[in-house]
């Protein structure tokens, strides 16, 4: 793959990432709210995804569903750019110059896992800021939780109070989620990776900065508090988001690549 063609793959991925946030962020906000507040005790803060969505719309309007979106735009755009670019380049490297009309799992799985592992380094800080912004706002109790005035304020305060280590809180869990999730992508993604996504949200939004960063210990704590169902908190909005968000990403990636003149095998 030439340098020019590789640059086009990264550009196509960047556009796909922006499109994904526009379509998927409201679902993600609901998912994060459910994961952050419905895994603490047996008593749920929100009865279901619809009640959570209604609460956000009633107290904050549509803007509330896009809370933390600016951080998500930056993170997702660069994540998608790197993911699709690295995936395409690694796949090309592993399968060689010989064209293949059939998917090769021994090429696809390591290519996607490698891309997911690399992007987790960028995605973790962006998602930490996004999640902390998303859990703010008026809750069902009527109280206003607003520690940060915006994404940049959140990032700066996190760095000031927790240091560089703080901005990468949940990094190991993000790496696991992204490498496993991207390796399985459209098939078993939601059911194999969602528990890690729940753990990541709990780790990144925990008020106690000294709390565990071990995803498996976090999952054990969730299990003790709310049982097995806690592992799949936010499954509803995740599944609803999956089709439009992933379809938007893939279609936008393919169309942008085609417009840029990228040649597919």
TrEMBL record:
InterPro entries membership: MCP_dom_sf (IPR023395), MCP_transmembrane (IPR018108), Mitochondrial_Carrier (IPR050567)
Example of a GO MF term: L-ornithine transmembrane transporter activity
Listed GO CC annotations: mitochondrial inner membrane
Coiled coil as UniProt keyword: no
Each Solcar repeat, start to end: 4-93, 103-195
Taxonomy, superkingdom: Eukaryota
Chain ranges passing through the membrane: 65-87, 107-129
Keyword line: Membrane, Mitochondrion, Mitochondrion inner membrane, Repeat, Transmembrane, Transmembrane helix, Transport
Cellular location(s): Mitochondrion inner membrane
Bilayer disposition of the protein: Multi-pass membrane protein
Alphabetical GO biological process terms: mitochondrial L-ornithine transmembrane transport
Main location: mitochondrion
UniProt keyword Transferase present: no
Family: Belongs to the mitochondrial carrier (TC 2.A.29) family.
Annotated protein name in UniProt: Uncharacterized protein
């Amino acid at each position: 793959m030439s340098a020019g063609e590789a640059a086009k793959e990264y550009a196509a991925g960047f556009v796909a990432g922006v499109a994904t946030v526009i379509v998927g962020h409201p679902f993600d906000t609901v998912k994060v709210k459910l994961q952050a507040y419905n895994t603490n005790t047996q008593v749920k803060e929100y009865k279901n995804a619809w009640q959570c969505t209604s609460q956000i719309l009633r107290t904050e309007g549509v803007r509330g569903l896009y809370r933390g979106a600016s951080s998500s735009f930056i993170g997702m755009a660069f994540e998608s750019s790197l993911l699709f670019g690295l995936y395409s380049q690694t796949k090309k490297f592993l399968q060689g110059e010989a064209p293949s009309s059939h998917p090769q799992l021994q090429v696809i799985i390591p290519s996607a896992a490698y891309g997911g592992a690399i992007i987790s380094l960028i995605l973790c800080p962006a998602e930490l800021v996004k999640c902390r912004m998303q859990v703010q706002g008026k809750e069902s109790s009527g109280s206003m939780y607003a520690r940060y005035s915006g994404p940049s304020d959140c990032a700066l305060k996190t760095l000031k109070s927790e240091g560089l280590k703080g901005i990468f809180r949940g990094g190991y869990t993000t790496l696991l989620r992204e490498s496993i999730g991207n390796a399985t992508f459209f098939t078993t993604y939601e059911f194999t990776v969602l528990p890690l996504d729940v753990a990541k949200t709990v780790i990144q939004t925990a008020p106690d900065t000294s709390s565990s960063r071990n995803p498996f210990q976090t999952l054990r704590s969730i299990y003790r508090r709310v049982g097995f169902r806690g592992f799949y908190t936010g499954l509803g909005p995740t599944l609803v988001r999956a089709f439009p968000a992933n379809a938007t990403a893939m279609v936008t990636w393919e169309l942008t690549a085609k417009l840029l003149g990228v040649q597919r095998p």
